[in-house]
């Protein structure tokens, strides 16, 4: 049976001399795998639509196992994202994170839209570091390790300065710091952004302007939290850290 889907290539694997196995994240079916026969050949009609990050319409033969890609039509190539080393590193991390946290054929149109909008904004030149942090925050719910960001996770206080507690899964006010001796000190701006990222709709994103210090704190908080609870090992994260070091040199 032929099936038509709108999807984004989130992983490619070479198979034999000429073929590729594509992992697509689709609006209609969630994550699926398809064989793209001959896609490694430069003149193949499947070559251009089999590149990482490509957004397109895909027609495939659905089977009990791996589907077979028949044809496809590109909607967006996200060319700027693919041709810039830094953007590619961040994009690779985003799609691998999604890949690791989702199962085959779990339909989630919201997650599809989140992925599409994140890659689109990065391709358009918006702050890729901030967009990556937003994506990470949104993926915490998918991973089943959501945060408590609406107040102190211990006493519920909704005003004042906060620190972040990996142990408590959210903010701690100054009166509750005794609960966790290893809190991460964060600014009020970082706390506000974490709360905003957790609740807001990415489609409503406006201009982004975040201080470097705040970016560093956001990265530290989310990295520690994922490392503690997700159980993930991402190859792209290692490369991303190397890229970030290059920026500082």
TrEMBL record:
GO terms for biological process: DNA recombination; double-strand break repair. Pfam families: RecO_C, RecO_N. InterPro entries: ARFGAP/RecO, DNA_rep/recomb_RecO_N, NA-bd_OB-fold, RecO, RecO_C. The keyword DNA damage applies. One of its GO terms (cellular component) is bacterial nucleoid. Keywords: DNA damage, DNA recombination, DNA repair. Gene3D superfamilies: Nucleic acid-binding proteins (2.40.50.140), Recombination protein O, C-terminal domain (1.20.1440.120). Residues 1-78 form the DNA replication/recombination mediator RecO N-terminal domain. Involved in DNA repair and RecF pathway recombination. Belongs to the RecO family. PANTHER family: DNA REPAIR PROTEIN RECO. This is DNA repair protein RecO. The lineage of its organism: Bacteria, Bacillati, Bacillota, Bacilli, Bacillales. The gene is recO.
